[in-house]
Design brief:
Length: 220
């Protein structure tokens, strides 16, 4: 059984999706710690309610970003995770820590990367006139939202959408996307190779795509 540490800054809906999948027997893993930069994050309450260790580390308590990152990851490493999942974690991670955990840390981002990196992705998509939007799970690198993309879920942009309605539609697909991608990682089927993401040892030519049955399939 794989050990997962989760980083979250907010409400923790993706964390809850992972907890529900584990409880329902569809994800063979254990969440061994939830870590946040915000002591008031609801994700920490969800962790405590599930009997999971919840740790808050405030950046302002440290003299530098590097000192904060070093402390945060020392706490993460204490729980000995096989996989680190950034699920709504809103801070950039330092290159030193990212490199130390290469291939073992993923992030879920609300856009079809490489489009619309950073914040306010739904507003970016609407401003660009995109007709398809979605979410991506990718390996974390030191580049903002720039690591190799593992899998994506697509949603249509509808006439009359605003940022709130589009965000809600994307979030509905984010949860099964993260669970499905995490399952492949925990099963050892997805790995990070020298030239990109591999599925069952074969380099993927494009990110996996979530189908209507919440399964990830290869695209060409």
């Amino acid at each position: 059984m794989r050990r997962i540490a989760v980083l979250a800054s907010g409400r923790g809906s993706n964390l809850q999706a992972l907890l529900d999948a584990i409880a329902g027997g569809t994800l063979d893993a254990e969440i061994v710690g939830v870590f946040s930069d915000r002591p008031g994050a609801r994700a920490l309450d969800l962790a405590r309610a599930a009997g999971v260790a919840a740790v808050a580390c405030r950046p302002r308590d440290f003299a530098t970003r590097a000192a904060y990152d070093e402390h945060l990851f020392s706490r993460i490493d204490e729980v000995q995770p096989d996989l680190i999942v950034c699920a709504g974690y809103m801070r950039l991670l330092g290159e030193l820590q990212v490199d130390a955990h290469r291939g073992r840390m993923i992030n879920i981002h609300p856009s079809l990367l490489p489009a619309f990196k950073g914040l306010h992705t739904h507003e970016q998509a609407l401003a660009a006139g995109a007709r398809v939007h979605g979410s991506s799970v990718h390996y974390v690198t030191a580049e903002l939202d720039g690591g190799p993309v593992i899998a994506q879920a697509r949603v249509p942009v509808l006439d009359g959408d605003d940022a709130a309605t589009l965000a809600a539609r994307v979030l509905q697909r984010e949860h099964p996307l993260l669970v499905a991608a995490t399952r492949l990682l925990c099963d050892g089927r997805v790995t990070l190779g020298a030239h990109g993401v591999c599925l069952d040892g074969q380099l993927l030519p494009a990110p996996l795509r979530l189908d209507d049955h919440d399964r990830l399939t290869a695209t060409h």
